[in-house]
Specification:
single chain, four-stranded antiparallel beta sheet, disordered C terminus
């Protein structure tokens, strides 16, 4: 399986590795929370608990890597500590969990927020974002030397990868009263370049991106109200705001990969707020394709964990956990869009338009 994008507005409680082979979540509740790794690449998914001597706090974050290890981010007093967890095989008293300490980050100022970014596309790197009102820093916490790799003026949020190598990262930067998505080149010392400039005073955020097709999922208030739109990376065409997405209170969480140069054919999955679409509570899922101009609303499986991944063949896989099935994966396929409505009255003829000289026929 291949995963292209993951929910980025907050760190999801269930994260999927870049290649779709593993996933991780913080299982349990109350004072008995522990990391849990899911294997998704086999014929049936299965979970391996990774408990340590001390249970984890509720605000700990976990992230699955392509080699089967799980990165964990904990708050230890004022420090933010990062470590890798992995199963060490069976022992006389049962399976054990290995732990490799990576490093820690000290908040530089009051109000600084530190969180994990989505998994790096290479499958092995991991990054964290430390954001405050005066500036933001991207830290490499796994897959290379531990330390800062980019410093960006302004408070940054979000986090979407724009390529398959883990070099170009899109962040939503708040600066001078507006929020605009910018591209950060991690291979060039964090060089920042504009990414979304829909209108001068609009807030333009990038929600998801698919490097294969270049499809971008955007939320902007440029049309006069916050709306979902889509565009193509590197294209000169304007961002489009489909009518079928007007008023949709939802967040896209996965895009179909493998559709090279065909962004209109990519399936997009949205977590709809209507019907209680919170992780773990079932809810509603919207399936949409830019070319179809229609949103299909389908019920999520009970115990849905709030995210998922598309296969290149167009199958959406949704992880869920219930008392009866503690590790499950449900599948959905995007239905065929209905045909456009038939117009009984022919439309009025359009007034002739002068043809610019450079477009005139020979």
């Amino acid at each position: 399986m291949t995963v292209c994008a993951i929910e980025i507005t907050t760190t999801a409680p269930f994260t999927i590795a870049a290649d779709g082979s593993y996933a991780a979540r913080l299982a349990g509740d109350g004072e008995a929370r522990y990391p849990e790794r899911w294997t998704l690449a086999g014929p049936e998914p299965y979970a391996v608990p990774l408990p340590l001597a001390q249970p984890e706090e509720a605000d700990s974050e976990v992230l699955a890597l392509a080699d089967g290890r799980v990165l964990i981010h904990r708050r230890v007093e004022r420090r933010h500590a990062f470590a890798l967890l992995y199963p060490t095989g069976g022992a006389a008293d049962g399976p054990r969990t290995g732990e490799l300490q990576l490093g820690s980050v000290e908040p530089g100022e009051e109000g600084m927020r530190i969180r994990l970014l989505p998994p790096s596309p290479d499958g092995y790197g991991a990054f964290a974002l430390a954001a405050s009102a005066t500036g933001s820093t991207v830290w490499r916490v796994a897959g290379g030397p531990f330390g800062p790799v980019a410093r960006i003026p302004g408070r940054c949020s979000g986090g979407v990868w724009l390529d398959r190598t883990g070099r170009l990262l899109a962040l939503d930067r708040e600066l001078d009263g507006t929020t605009k998505a910018v591209a950060v080149d991690l291979a060039r010392g964090g060089e920042v370049s504009p990414l979304l400039q829909i209108a001068e005073g609009s807030d333009d955020r990038l929600l998801l991106a698919d490097p294969d097709s270049g499809l971008l999922l955007i939320r902007s208030d440029a049309p006069g109200e916050p709306r979902l739109g889509w565009g193509v990376l590197g294209s000169s065409l304007p961002v489009r705001f489909p009518e079928c997405l007007r008023g949709e209170a939802g967040t896209p969480f996965a895009v179909q990969p493998g559709q090279a140069l065909m962004p209109e054919t990519c399936g997009v999955a949205l977590r709809l707020e209507e019907g209680g679409g919170a992780p773990g509570g079932g809810g509603m899922i919207g399936l949409w394709r830019p070319a179809d101009r229609h949103v299909f609303r389908l019920a999520a499986p009970d115990g849905w964990l709030g995210t998922g991944l598309w296969s290149p063949q167009g199958r959406l896989h949704l992880p869920y956990a219930t008392p009866e099935t503690p590790c499950g994966l449900a599948g959905l396929t995007l239905p065929v869009a209905p045909p456009p409505p038939v117009r009984l009255d022919p439309p009025a003829a359009a007034a002739p338009r002068p043809v610019p000289l450079q477009q005139a026929p020979l």
